[in-house]
Design brief:
By secondary structure, the chain is mainly β. It has two domains: 71 residues, SH3 type barrels; 71 residues, Roll (SH3 type barrels). It is 6% helix and 47% strand. The protein contains two helices and ten strands; from the N terminus they run ββαβββββαβββ. The chain is globular.
């Protein structure tokens, strides 16, 4: 996370990390500007979370607190910033926002996933790859374990831990609109 090639100064990024059993709140130190870049670093297997509070899913009972902790990314269902970040609508590839339901047991997530323009939705879904993927305008909950709904601008989901469902009534565009600035995701992407 502190690459010598990155000219950005180190910054604190307050976040919430959710696993199947724990909700962890704390901060990370990084030179990267986007949370998606932090969790998608190829050689990173864990996050070092500072001033961490570990809570049980559902009861939110605090089970541990730590000045420094290590959270394994393989166990993470999803992560989001605890506070809003500066607007950053940087997208590397033109994509369209599609409403989806993601199932990350015991959690259900609703929001917009961002798919490449393809001739068919099923082809775009096949191209929806990556270790951690953004969901914008997200809402998540786990009623089965008494976890009330939470809404966040940007949720980063562990693709290996979620099932993605898109309604068959979804309007599909095969190419990007010609208007400038259409479809840009919100901050922290």
């Amino acid at each position: 996370m502190f690459s010598t090639f990155n000219p950005n100064p180190a910054q604190s990024m307050p976040l919430t990390v959710v696993t199947a059993q724990l909700i962890i709140q704390g901060t990370i130190q990084t030179r990267l500007l986007r949370l998606t870049d932090v969790v998608n670093e190829p050689d990173i297997a864990s996050l070092v979370v500072l001033d961490a509070t570990f809570m049980e899913v559902g009861s939110r009972r605090v089970v541990a607190g730590a000045a420094v902790s290590q959270v394994q990314l393989d166990d993470v269902l999803f992560v989001h910033m605890t506070q809003s970040s500066e607007a950053n609508s940087d997208m590397r590839t033109p994509k369209q926002a599609v409403r989806a339901t993601l199932l990350a047991p015991p959690f259900t997530i609703e929001g917009q996933i961002h798919l490449p323009y393809e001739s068919e939705l099923k082809i775009a879904m096949a191209a929806y790859t990556g270790r951690f993927l953004p969901v914008t305008g997200a809402r998540y909950w786990a009623y089965g374990v008494a976890e009330a709904p939470n809404s966040v601008d940007l949720l980063i989901v562990n693709h290996a831990k979620v099932h993605v469902a898109v309604a068959s009534s979804t309007q599909w565009l095969t190419e990007a609109p010609s208007e400038a600035g259409g479809g840009s995701p919100p901050s922290g992407w």
